[in-house]
Amino acid sequence: MKKPSTDDSYKASLEYLELGEHAKAGEILYELIETLLSSQDSDPVFVANVWLATGVCHMEQEQYSKALDAFTESLHIVESTFGRTHPAVAAVYVNIGLLYMRQGGKKFEAAKVLNKAKQLCDTSKGSDRLALADILHNLGCIEDQNGKLADAMALYSRSALIRSKLLGDQHPLVATTYSNMGQVLRDQMKYAEALEHHLKALAARESAFGSDHLDTAESCYFIACIYQSINKSSLAHKFVQRALAVRSEQLEPNDPALKEVIRLARHLDFQRNSKQRTARPRPSSATMAGRYAMSTQPRRHAPQGVSQFTTPVRDGPAMSMRQTRAQPSAGHTAAGQNRHRPRSAPRGGRATGTQRPDATMGGRMATPSAAAHSAPERVPFSEMIRRRDFR
C-alpha cells in the first residue's frame, strides 16, 4: 500500500481537526513531524504550518503546555525564515493569544500578545485583514470580560466591519461578532440595538447551519432573554421554545446551557399562567349583589391546613457556555475559559460540539501568503485551516 505523501497527511490531519477528532489529528501530525525532521529539504513554511496545527490540536484537548511548545516552534521557524516583522508572525501570535485566553487567568498575557499581532497587521504591507479581524474580536472579548463595554464595542465593531466586507453578512464568524455585540448592548440596557444584532446573528447562523444547530439555538436563547427583559413574554416564549427544542435534543441533561434555557422557559410559563389567573372577567352587578347577599350569611371556616405551592425564583446570572467549556469553549467557552463577569444571558459560546464551525473555539490558523518572498512554499499560510476564534 502506497504511503500517503506529507501533503496528504497534513490535509487529513486538518480534516480530523475540523471534525473534532483531535487525538487522530495529533497522531498524524506527530508522524508528519518525525518525517519532516529527518528530511534535509523540508519546506520551512510547510513545517511551520504543521507545528501550528499541532498546537491547535493540543489546545483543543486543553494540553496547554504542549500547545505553547508547538506554537513556539512555529513562531521560531516563521521569524527565522521571514523576519520578525512579517505578517505571518501575526498569525502565530493570534493562536498564542487565544491559548492564553483559554487558560482563564492569563488575560494580561493574551492582551500583550494580541496587541503585538495588531501592531504587525497595522504596519506590515500585505497583512491578512482576516487575521486583523480576529485580533480585534479577541481583544474585544478581553475588554468585555474586564467590564470595559465601550472599548469592547468599538473593537467588535471594527472586527464586524472587516469580516462582513471580506466574508459577507451570512458568515458564521460575522454572526459570532454580532452576537457578542448584542450581549454588550444588552448589558448597557440598549435593548432595541441588542435585539437588532442578535437577529442578524440568528439569520446568519440559520443560513450557515440550519435551524437545528446549537449556534442557532444560542441566538434564539439570547433573543428570548431580550424579549423577556422588555416584557414581551409571548415573543420570548416563542424563541425560548426553539432554543429548548434544539438543546434538549443535543445536550446532556446536566449541561449548563440546557439548564439555563429550561429555567427561562419555566419562568416564562409561570408568568403566563399568573396572568391568566389574574385576568378573570369582571363580575356583573347581579353577581355582585349575590355576593353581597351571601356575605351576610355566617361564614364557614375553610378546612385547616397549609396551602403549598411554589413559584420559580427569578433566575440569577447564568454562566457563559464558553465559561463552562474551557472552561476554557471556548471555547467566543467555551470552554474552560474565562468568562468571569456574570451575565443574565451567557455570552455566547457554542455549546461543546457545535461550531461554530463554532462548537468549541479553536485557534485561527490562517496567515497571509508568503509568495512574495524568496523562500520555497508548498502549503502557503493562506491555505491553513481557519478555525473558530475566541467568542
Write the layout of secondary structure elements.
Elements: H1 6-18, H2 22-38, H3 44-60, H4 64-82, H5 87-102, H6 107-123, H7 129-145, H8 149-167, H9 172-187, H10 191-209, H11 214-229, H12 233-250, H13 256-278, H14 285-295, H15 321-325, E1 355-356
CATH H-tier superfamily of the domain at 1-84 = Tetratricopeptide repeat domain
| Biggest beta-sheet profile | none
Helix percent band: 55-70%
Beta-strand content bin: under 5%
Shape: elongated
Structural class: mainly alpha
* Mean model confidence by pLDDT: 75
Contiguous low-pLDDT stretches (5 residues minimum) are 284-391
Using the 3D structure, state the CATH architecture of the domain at 1-84: Alpha Horseshoe
CATH third-level topology of the domain at 1-84: Serine Threonine Protein Phosphatase 5, Tetratricopeptide repeat
How many strands in all? 1
Radius of gyration from the alpha-carbon trace, in angstroms: 26 Å
What is the number of helices? Answer: 15
Q: N- to C-terminal separation?
A: 43 Å
